# Entry
Amino acid sequence: MPRDKTASHIRVMAAAREEFLEYGFEKASMRRVGQRCGLTAAGLYRHCSDKADLFDQLVAPAVERLHAWMETHLSRYLSAVREEGNLQWQDSWIDMMREVVYPHMDEYHLLLTCASGTKYERFLHDLTQTAQERTLEYLPVLRAKGLAIRAISPTELHLLYSAYVTTLFEPVIHRYSPEESLRCLETVEAFFLPGWKALFGF
# Structure
């Protein structure tokens, strides 16, 4: 459904966000959403096709923003290694959290804690799986450039990414303050990055 920028649609989105945060997707009520924004059922359904579409409109921009960062991140790495021969460590998921996720904490909190019953309910698992698969594609490129990459199985890599992703998103799930989130991010960076660099031969 096209993104509606009217004042009415903005009220619908605000009401839906409140409803989903309070009840979660499965227990959320379209009737209550309508009551929250002062619309009849017919008026509400001019802004969405159903409850799943309403939730999707709220969280899809956050998902797209994160995936766009990841794709740019990997493309930049591959280009630097393949075309420029630049084997220096660049950015990491720490930067993604700082630049993309933590500034939009409420959007990602909604995505991670209220999505049961939607296509997003396994979002962190799917994110971990994607990261694992893309990394396994990337490692042979690094090996071909002479980096001393430690032999690691897909199972081991999945274990590491599961720990890393879960840790990074804990402040989002528990709604830490911006200041506390950034302090935690510094600790995560100090703990995980030396291990990633050693694993990838940097």
Q: What stands out?
A: The two ends are 45 Å apart (CA to CA).
